[in-house]
Amino acid sequence: MSDALDIALRLLAVFAVFLVFPLVIGQTEHKVMAHMQGRLGPMYAGGFHGWAQLVADGVKFAQKEDIVPAGADRRIFQLAPAVALLPYLLVLVAIPIGPHNAVGQALDAGIFFVLAVMGVGVLGSLMAGWASANKFSLLGGLRTAAQLLAYELPMLLTAASVAMAAGTLSLPGIIEAFHWWWVPWQMVGGLVFFTAGLAELQRPPFDMPVADSEIIFGAYTEYTGLRFALFLLAEYAGIVVLCALTSVLFLGGWHGPFGADGLGWLWTLLKTVILAFGVIWLRVTYPRLREDQLQKLAWTVLIPLALAQIALTGVVKVVISS
User: Fold this and answer.
1) How far is residue 87's CA from residue 95's CA, in Å, rounded to a whole number?
2) What is the topology of this protein in the membrane according to its UniProt annotation (predicted)?
3) Torsion angle of alpha carbons 26, 28, 32, 35, nearest 10°?
4) Is residue 173 part of a domain?
């Protein structure tokens, strides 16, 4: 009975984080972009610092009519938002927050699990583009598929580098094996992993599949109301997952200057929030890449850097073991 209660509490905690953190990231993006770009609109709703902007957006989406195009594949069209969103809930189950088994479920091959499930989330966009019976949506879906193929490889290679350094595929095991001197040693791999993750989430400047100036809004053109809101929520949930995973793999997770045992969860949260702020900053700062530039970055820059990181990790491991 106690085991069942422990599992239920862990799942409830993961579900609460899944419902709250993406909304916090979305609200933060509204405010940060408003300050950086001098946009006053999001700062007025509700009075103090525009606190009600997120509520207003939610009410707006709930009031909009749910429309399915006449020529669409109805079941696939309706299922796509769930396919885009739910994988990130499953990933959060395996990401450790703090020491002493502070994780929804510790998996021996956790790094393989989270990367495989994150890849499934991108299929929601592909399903939406194919099922919408819209040529612009189909083009956005095809761009999503090409982007997934290009950027999944550097993510896997850099994650493999960390697993090689730690000698384990378990995410808690990787954090336990972490040493402070890993940060400069694995820095290139961390940058490649984070950049490839942004591309898989289709975040600016890697948002070619939703290029509004070219293909309206890509795979999401035909979506309205709450179904469209689910795609936005999936994007923000993906930011939470990517930043938390980057902090676990490359920044030591719960390790900090002091209080790793008692304040481990706080260090993980702080690193995740700082990385999420960086994601928002990138959206405001850099223009969208062209499709050819996006593919060139993956195949001629990120993948060679990821291979070089694996080679460096192998050399360092041999030197240390000898």
Assistant:
1) 13
2) Multi-pass membrane protein
3) 110
4) yes
Q: Could you tell me which residues come within 8 angstroms of residue 233 by beta carbon, excluding any fewer than 6 positions away?
A: 22, 23, 26, 85
Half-sphere exposure of residue 81: CA atoms within 13 angstroms, side-chain side: 17
Q: Is 73 helix (H, G, I), strand (E, B) or coil?
A: coil
Ramachandran region, residue 167 (left: φ > 0; alpha: ψ -120 to 50; beta: rest): left
AA letter at 150: A
Ramachandran category for residue 92: left, alpha or beta (phi over 0 → left; psi -120 to 50 → alpha): alpha
Strand partners, 318: none
Of the candidates 257, 243, 229, the residue with the CA atom closest to the CA atom of residue 59: 229
- Give me the mean pLDDT over the 29-51 stretch: 76
Joined together, the tokens standing for residue 274 give 């700082």
Contacts of 237 (CB under 8 A, 6+ apart): 18, 21, 22, 85, 88, 89
Question: What is the Cα–Cα distance from 86 to 107, expressed in whole angstroms?
Answer: 19
Q: Please check whether residue 45 lies inside any domain of the structure.
A: no
Q: What is the pLDDT of residues 250-282, one digit of tens each?
A: 998 888 776 556 677 888 899 999 999 999 999
CA distance 157 to 134: 35
Q: Are 122 and 198 in contact (CB under 8 A)?
A: no
Domain housing 256? 67-321
CB 128 within 8 A of CB 221: no
pLDDT digits (tens, 9 = 90+) for 137-148: 888 888 888 888
Residues paired with 144 in a beta bridge: none
Reading the block at residue 162, the tokens are: 């960390």
Distance CA 244, CA 270 (A): 10
Distances (CA, A) of 109 to 97, 252, 255: 17, 18, 21
Residue 72 lies in a domain: yes
Give the position of tokens 């896997």: 156
Helix (H, G, I), strand (E, B) or coil at 288: coil
The domain tally of the chain equals 1
